[in-house]
Description:
Layout: H1 4-15, H2 22-38, H3 42-47, E1 49-56, E2 63-66, H4 69-84, E3 86-93, E4 98-101, E5 105-118, E6 121-136, E7 139-149, E8 153-154
Amino acid sequence: MLRAVPLLTISLLIAAPAAAGPADDATAVATQILDKFNGGDVNAFVAAHQSGALIVDEFAPHIWNGPNSAQRWVSDYTKDAEKRGISGGRVDYDKPLQANSDGKSAYIVLPTTYRFTQNGKKMIGKGSMTFVMARSGAIWKIASWTYSGGTPAPE
């Protein structure tokens, strides 16, 4: 009987689901934000950023920070897309390449695929998005994100 107790304890530890840690929680928020962007919910996307979030992206002016940085990025993204004949932009993502957190901040790297239509042609760009998330109370917000990727090509 005493032999069965350690085996039962080990089997319960193996079978019990692991509790989500802060890196998992922050990653879930980052991917939900991308889902909101993909669904066209620009207000939720903007609201997910800290005031003065730092954003680095592939189109000019390439860097946004300070007051209303997320809203200014959305405006510049829209202008750039119109100028280059881009529509239907969406960012698909996979499991994080890296995600770590101390409970107050988190660093997350997601492999991404940027899909869009440009002048009637379907395009695809492989890359990654790196997020720095900051926690205030129970809420994770984007403190910074960067998109890095190669030149998009026809899909």
